[in-house]
Amino acid sequence: MHTDLASTPVLTTLDDADRRALEHLLRAARGHVHLPPLGAFRRMESDEIWAKLVRQACVLGSSREMERIEHDPVKAKKFFAAIRPAALRDAGLIRKQMSRVLSDYQATRFPLRTARALTEMLDNERIVVGTRVVLLEGLDMERSGDELRAELRRRCPLLSLKCASDFMIEVGLSHDVIALDTKVLAALRAWFGCEVSMTVVQSREAVYTSIEAALRSECARLGVRLGELGRTITQLSGKTALEFLMER
Q: What is the pTM of this model?
């Protein structure tokens, strides 16, 4: 995988070895990784959608803190209940209360910054009205993943490309995007020769979308949804070969 940072637009290409490696990975993982169904958000409660937004705000910088909470179902239930819009508004002093909840549950590496971001979301009527999340209302799912993500980020500017993509997959808004997080990029570097650092991908959106477009094209050739590739890498990156085989 080669990304030409000097070209206009930025161009990412895969060679034959990359294509074979990608096909091997996706065939081996077939049936093992499942995405939330498209349109899943229409059956979600408002607080469930808010919880997924909270997660995106909390994982900026590191996902370990949220992963620890999510691995403890009882703790996760209490945390997300405490950070519901209704619970925060009832408590008053929303940013202070939110920072306290984030700190008490050790939900993020940066509780003050995360509390500020989430407070801005609560105060943005394109995202939340009262205690109801309206962010996804009126979105046309016939549009492409790129178009939906652009509209989502217009409504919620605090979402990065990576976070917006992950959120879209989580709520079933689109399967045609990929969350290029540290795990995915580490795999691309290790197995596909990607030379681009996480810092460059995060700071230059043209680089992000170039890598994404190259992977999307190859996934389409293989009849696989792009989001499935990202989830395959993320979910399997922490497993041993034995764990993977025994779960199949």
A: 0.92
